Amino acid sequence: MALVLDGDRSVASVARDLGIGETNLGNWVRRARVDRGEKPGLTTSERAELARLRRENARLGMERELLKRATAFGVRESGQ
Asked: CA 72 to CA 61: how far, in whole Å?
């Protein structure tokens, strides 16, 4: 990746020399440029935090739904 980022070589030539897919290397280079602040977008750490927050949000939503159901069940049981 440094050959492309810090050198004057193209993604295609480096990928060919390394025997890896041009698309893969291009994706890694784009991600590195975002992480370096050279290109707009979410950094790797921001992507990880967003994924963590989405998982936490889903978990909290399930917990909330469970509490609502338990409360409704308790109200029904106490009313009988």
From this structure: 17
Q: Quote the pLDDT of residue 48.
A: 98
Full DSSP string of 29-50: HHHHHHHHTSS-S--HHHHHHH
CA dist 54 and 29 (Å) reads 26
13 is written with which tokens?
């030539």
* Residues 52 and 44 sit within 8 Å (Cβ to Cβ): no
What average pLDDT does this structure show over 26-47?
Answer: 96
Neighbouring CB atoms inside 10 A of 11's CB total 19
| pLDDT bracket for residue 73 (50, 70, 90) | confident
Q: Which residue has the tokens 């739904």?
A: 65
Rounded distance between C-alpha atoms, residue 46 and residue 35, angstroms: 9
